[in-house]
Design a protein that fits this description.
Elements: H1 4-13, H2 19-29, H3 35-42, H4 48-85, H5 103-116, E1 121-122, E2 128-130, H6 131-134, E3 161-163, H7 168-177, E4 182-191, E5 203-214, H8 218-233, E6 239-246, E7 249-258, E8 275-284, H9 286-291, E9 299-307, H10 308-315, H11 323-326, H12 329-332
Parallel strand pairs: 1-4
Antiparallel strand pairs: 2-3, 4-5, 5-9, 6-7, 7-8, 8-9
The structure holds phenylalanine.
Phenylalanine binds next to strand 8 and strand 9.
Length: 340
């Protein structure tokens, strides 16, 4: 049998390098069949005095083996867990996808900036509105089809509460709270009970504008809108105003711009007319001014409203409005360059 000293040396000299050699170490020194355990069997043949001294020695031997075993195990467990935590810094860097602004936000900001540059201030307000601010104050007759269930989302709780169908409600709120001169733009989300198609959606975005002061004229409106169209679509863009009807403006018009794709020559986008419609506008109806507590004999004003989705589709020539609501990153990613 090996001497105790020999076993001690073996324990110290044993090369533990990996899980495999650790297991060999365990089998050799720490199992029931190990040499150390065999020494324990000797104890019963000894005299009490001898047994005590010998017992102490072989206990120390066993402890030394257990200690080596545990400390290697501990270190190797620590190493694997840090290896899992710390990335290999020599690996090629992972591509971090930087997000981009949504095209609707890009367009909203552009429209805002263009009008803010000439003294308009943006105002915001509630999506959930009451009948007065969306319809009645704006001179909508009682039986006007826009009030119909087919266009407007009403809130079950109360017939007077509804989702705004246009941000003209903010024009009313502004006129109720401010004295002329008033120069505001009203960006926001609007809701209409429409079937979702490639050209229409039940949620979309508008920027409306309002200018009220003494002796504001139709010519002022036309010039403001020409300035806007040229800043948005380029200096060569032409505009034309076609007579139209809105309950809250008189006279009312729809504005077209020369087609930004074909420059007016005719293409699919403009249905070969050379023109595309971008907004509605008109002189604020005196009834509306009076409804909002502004003296219509003293003040006049113009208003306009444009649909952001439509503008974005024109500017970036996309042919399906639903793309703006699907949040498909393959689509959104293309607007990275326009994000500032
Ligand atoms: N509120 C109108 C709409 O939503 C747009 C508009 C605003 C027209 C202001 C004229 C003047 O369709």
């Amino acid at each position: 049998m090996k001497t105790i000293e020999e076993i001690r040396k073996e324990i110290e000299a044993f090369q533990i390098e990996n899980a495999e050699t650790l297991e060999q170490f365990r089998l050799q020194f720490l199992t029931k069949k190990s040499e150390i355990q065999a020494l324990f069997a000797e104890l019963k043949n000894m005299q009490p005095e001898e047994r005590k001294a010998f017992g102490q020695i072989i206990n120390e031997l066993k402890n030394a083996a257990t200690e080596r075993f545990n400390s290697f195990k501990e270190i190797s467990e620590m190493q694997t867990s840090t290896r899992q935590q710390i990335a290999d810094v020599t690996r090629p860097a992972q591509n971090v996808e930087v997000g981009s602004m949504h095209p609707i936000s890009i367009m909203m900001n552009q429209v805002r900036r263009i009008f803010e540059d000439i003294g308009f201030t943006a105002v915001t307000g509630p999506d959930v509105e009451d009948d007065w601010h969306v319809f009645t104050a704006l001179n909508f007759p009682e039986e006007h089809p826009a009030r119909d269930m087919q266009d407007t989302f009403f809130i079950d709780l109360h017939p007077d509460v509804l989702l705004r169908t246009h941000t003209s409600s903010l024009q009313v709120r502004t006129m109720e709270n401010q004295k002329p001169p008033i120069r505001v733009i009203c960006p926001g989300r609007v809701f209409r009970n429409e079937a979702i198609t490639s050209r229409a959606h039940c949620i979309f975005h508008q920027v409306e504008g309002l200018y009220v002061a003494e002796s504001v004229s139709f010519a002022d409106m036309k010039q403001t809108l020409l300035y806007f169209a040229q800043r948005m679509f380029g200096p060569e863009v032409r505009i034309r105003l076609r007579p139209s009807y809105f309950p809250f403006t008189e006279p009312s018009a729809e504005m077209d711009i020369s087609c930004n794709i074909c420059g007016g020559a005719g293409c699919n986008l403009c249905k070969h007319t050379g023109w595309v419609e971008i907004l509605g506008c008109g002189m604020v109806d005196p009834n509306v001014l009076d409804n909002c507590g502004i003296d219509s004999k003293k003040y006049s004003g113009f208003a306009f409203g444009l649909g952001i989705e439509r503008m974005t589709m024109l500017k970036y020539t996309t042919n399906d409005i639903r793309l703006y609501f699907e949040n498909d990153v393959r689509f959104l990613r293309q607007f990275k360059a326009a994000t500032k």
